[in-house]
Every structure is written in C-alpha cells, then in structure tokens.
Automatic annotation (TrEMBL):
Coiled coil: none annotated. The lineage of its organism: Bacteria, Bacillati, Actinomycetota, Actinomycetes, Kitasatosporales. Binds 1 [4Fe-4S] cluster. The keyword DNA-binding applies. It comes from Streptomyces pluripotens. Its EC number is 4.2.99.18. GO terms for biological process: base-excision repair, AP site formation. CDD domains: ENDO3c. Its cofactor is [4Fe-4S] cluster. This is Endonuclease III.
Amino acid sequence: MPKAVKPWKPESRTALVRRARKINRELAEVYPYAHPELDFENPFQLLVATVLSAQTTDLRVNQTTPALFARFPVPEDLAAANPEEVEEILRPCGFFRAKTRSVIGLSKALVEDFRGEVPGKLEELVKLPGVGRKTAFVVLGNAFGRPGITVDTHFQRLVRRWKWTEETEPDKIEAAVGSLFPKSAWTDLSHHVIWHGRRICHARRPACGACPIAPLCPAYGEGETDPEKAKKLLKYEKGGFPGQRLKPPQAYLDAGGRPAPPLGVA
Ligand code: SF4
C-alpha cells in the first residue's frame, strides 16, 4: 500500500507550491508522453474537435473527425455545408444536431470575421460562437504553443482533491492553479492532470492503491486502496488498452502506446 500523508494538515503557501510542483514533476515521469488526446493536423481541426468533445469521449471524436475533415477540410467548406450531411457524419458523437449547428456557425464566423483562419489570441477565440476559455486554451496551448490551463472536469476534480484550491468556478480555478506554477508549465501541467484523471484518479473510484502520487495526496483513501483491486481500475494504456488517439504522437508510440481503433473496429 502506498505511504500516504494522512491525516492531512493545513499547509503554508510555500509548502503548497512545493507540493503542487512535486505532483506535476512526478506526473511528468508517469506520463512523459502526455499530449492532447484529440487528433488534429491544424488549428481548425483542433478547434472543431474540441467543440465536438463536449459530452463524449475524445476517442469517439477521433473516430468521427476523419470523415468530417475529409469531406470538409477548411472552414469555407464547413460554413457552406448541407447541415443534414454534417449531421449524418457527426451522429456517433451524440448531440449531433446541436454540434452540427455549432461547427457550421463556428466556421461561418471564421470565414466572415477572420478570413478563414483560426485566430491565435484568447480575446479573439472567445468571440467565436460556442468557444469558451477552456476550448480557447486547448487551441492556444496545443495548436499555437501559447501556455494555457485547461480546466475541464478532470482538472476541476483533481485540483480540489489535491487541495490546490477550493474555488469551484473554472475561471477562478484557472487563476488559483496558474499562480502555483510558472506560465511555461501550464500546458504540460494541464495534460498531466487530465491524463491522471482519465487513467487513475477517476471520478467515482479513484485507484488510490495504484497511484504514484498517493503520498502527496490529501484525498488518498477516497478510492480503492488495495493495490491489486486498484490495478484493475486503471484505464487506457495503464490498464493495458490503447489510448484515445488514432494518430498519437511518435513519443507515445515509442513508449509502447498503441493507437486507438477506427470507428466500428473493436
Ligand atoms: S487516485 Fe487517490 S491517491 Fe491518487 S490522486 Fe486520486 S485521490 Fe489521490
């Protein structure tokens, strides 16, 4: 059983910063190949894929977007698309009518306001219909190399478990966590936290007994502490299954990761 810090005692700001950075360093060792789990080849594809990822898995989006981008490769194509055709393609993603409206509306705005280019600034990205700060930071961090913190559901859950912040609103969480790290670390930090949330520190049954950062975690024991039972809860490549991308980065493949299967293949 991992040696955990328990019971948790209040800590100074300095101790919190040290512990937060240590968690990030340890997660970097566990997930040296952490990357955005949406397949994309350019900012437009990442923007659309991020919008499609609401209420579904990145895997399902990755299995759906190849057909979408083969048929509508640039914003001009999607802006002028027949909605029924797009709906058919997006059906596997769920909420396909609303998502069709979103991606067509988004493409129209790109064409009309940004000459068909995805803008590389936060204040411009959030002006696009259906694009909030979370989506904007995903695009900025991963398609433009600008540091950003992605406060998704995993991020929110984990940073609260780790007592990095007690804030509950995404914007405030982003500011509070951002203040613990240098800006240059933000994008990788987001990947590490989200990867840990997907693979080990799950919402319902976190695999505490198989968790490499248990000694640094105030919430150790919230989930399964028996190492053998905890191991069975691990997901994706930690649990012996492929990751979510059909076309993962080379570093992931070099580390033994496997590409996810296309739609309809088990
Ligand atoms: S799995 Fe358990 S020990 Fe690990 S980070 Fe999550 S709550 Fe903490």
